[in-house]
Structures are given as structure tokens and as C-alpha cells.
Design brief:
mainly beta; 25-stranded mixed β-sheet; elongated; disordered N terminus
Length: 290
């Protein structure tokens, strides 16, 4: 899959340097495309600011990078000068590639300056993705994933071991396995088709949903002002301790005890999966997968 397929991950962006007015600010942009040859299973570190990061899988030993760099100012000349301060740097060391967009200066305010990064990486890569004020999207890599942003959503498909954090945005993890450490605020948190996953999921003012197979160990689901719904395999063996306030409590597992504001009990003999689920002002449900 080549870098062009990344267009499916987000909105189309400008393909040439231009000036335009956004809330009274003129923006200039330019595109930089780079390619690097790597060994199998690289660790790919990506850093940018005020911009989106999108990652898909590509060649076995190749990384393709497409960066749209932006500068801003009160007029076109200022925007072009600001754009020259935004730089893409790529460095390599054994087993690791660092792809970073940074400013050459240190302004007190970057305005609309920033950069969107789109990458195609080997499928067995592990990722460390950091940005601000925009979203992160990753699809189908099989290694560990770290994702950090703010004021933007996170969407991850695949990965073994995901550590993702954002604020003021939703967080979705689909088809991941291993330890999942997921945190957001003011946004929903959805874990879909998890595969032998050990989960810590925390948000506020957003619902939490889980479906898939939980791994042995302790799981935590915590939110406020929203619901928690856990869909487990019909033959799952687990203990659960769940509480809510100002919401209903329900389950399809007859061995569990449903109270006015609690759900407690065990399914199976000496179950290896332990679940804690807490919310307020929201429903709590533990159901089975179809």
C-alpha cells in the first residue's frame, strides 16, 4: 500500500504552496516527501505539532513520508517567512527511525503554523506518535503503539500493546491485543474486537464500550456522566465489581448479583479475569457477544 492510500484516513489537504485566509490569518504551505530504507521491525518515532498523524502499512523495508508543512502570518510575505521556520528532520539509528517536524526558532505563539504527517511503514513496525491539536490514526501495524495528542481523536486498528492518550476527543482501538492503556477526557472510549487484551480504560464525560476477549489479570473501566457497556464472550469466566449512580444496572450472566447501583459476582470457578467498572450518572451493563 503506497502513501496515496493515506487519503482515505482524512480530509484532502492542499497539494501546493498557497496563501489562504483562516480566521484572519494567511497560511502558506509546502509538501515534502521522503523515503527511507529500514530493517524489518523498526521502531518509528513521529513528532509534529498542530497537525494530524496518519500511518498505514507499506513495503517490508521501506518508510514513505509525506509532510505538509504550514506557516502563518498576517500577510503572504509573513506566512512565507514563517513557513521557512518549519522543518522536517529524519534521522536513523539501528532499529529506529525518528521523523520530526520542528521550528527553527522559538516563537511565543505558532498561530496556524504546524504540519500534517502521512506515513507508510512496514507492517511489523512499532510506533511512537506525538502531536497536538489534531488527530492520530494508525492502521494494521502489528507492533506496540504509543499515541499522544490533545484536542483531537485517536483511532488505532491493530497493534500488540497500545498506550494511547488524548483530551477533548474520542479514542477508538479496534482489533488490538496485549496490554491496552487508554485515557481520554470529554470523549467516548471504544474498544472493539480486543484479542486477549488486558485493559485499563479511563475517560470522563464519555461512554466506554468493550467487546472482545479479555486476558487474564485485572481490568479497569472508569468514566463519569456516561455509560459503561462490556460485551464478553458467552463462555467467559470472570469476576466483576461495578458501581454507578443515577443509572441502571443490567447483565445477562445469571451468576452475577444486580443491585440498585452495583453489579457484583463471579462467573466460573476461580476465574482468572477480574473486572472493575465504575461510572456515575450513567448505565452499567455486562452482556454477552452475539
Amino acid at each position: 500500500m503506497r502513501i496515496a492510500t493515506l487519503l482515505a484516513l482524512g480530509a484532502t489537504i492542499a497539494v501546493s504552496a498557497l496563501g489562504c485566509t483562516i480566521t484572519g490569518t494567511v497560511v502558506a504551505s509546502r509538501i515534502v516527501q521522503e523515503q527511507r530504507t529500514v530493517e524489518r521491525g523498526p521502531r518509528v518515532v513521529v513528532e509534529t505539532f498542530n497537525g494530524r498523524i496518519g500511518v498505514v502499512t507499506g513495503g517490508d523495508t521501506q518508510i514513505d513520508v509525506r509532510a505538509v508543512l504550514r506557516g502563518s502570518g498576517t500577510n503572504q510575505a509573513d506566512a512565507e517567512r514563517d513557513l521557512r521556520q518549519v522543518q522536517l528532520d529524519i534521522s536513523q539509528e539501528p532499529g529506529r527511525v525518528i521523523i520530526a517536524v520542528r521550528r527553527l526558532d522559538q516563537p511565543t505563539s505558532v498561530g496556524n503554523s504546524g504540519a500534517d504527517l502521512e506515513l507508510a511503514v512496514p507492517i511489523d513496525s512499532s510506533l511512537e506518535l506525538r502531536t497536538s491539536n489534531d488527530r492520530i490514526e494508525s492502521a494494521n501495524v502489528t507492533g506496540a503503539i504509543i499515541a499522544r495528542t490533545s484536542n483531537g481523536g485517536v483511532m488505532i486498528r491493530g497493534g500488540r500493546g497500545v498506550d494511547a492518550e488524548t483530551s477533548n476527543g474520542p479514542l477508538t482501538v479496534n482489533g488490538a491485543s496485549g496490554r491496552l492503556q487508554l485515557r481520554t477526557s470529554n470523549g467516548a472510549l471504544d474498544i472493539i474486537d480486543a484479542q486477549e487484551a488486558l485493559v485499563t480504560a479511563e475517560t470522563s464525560n464519555g461512554a466506554i464500550t468493550f467487546s472482545g476477549t479479555p486476558a487474564e489479570g485485572s481490568h479497569t473501566f472508569r468514566t463519569s456522566n456516561a455509560s459503561i457497556k462490556l460485551a464478553l464472550p458467552g463462555d467467559a469466566e470472570f469476576t466483576v465489581e461495578g458501581r454507578t449512580s443515577n443509572g441502571s444496572v443490567s447483565t445477562v450472566f445469571p451468576d452475577l448479583t444486580v443491585g440498585d447501583d452495583s453489579l457484583i459476582g463471579s462467573v466460573g470457578d476461580d476465574p482468572p479475569v477480574r473486572i472493575r467498572a465504575d461510572t456515575s450518572n450513567g448505565d452499567l451493563a455486562v452482556t454477552s457477544q452475539p
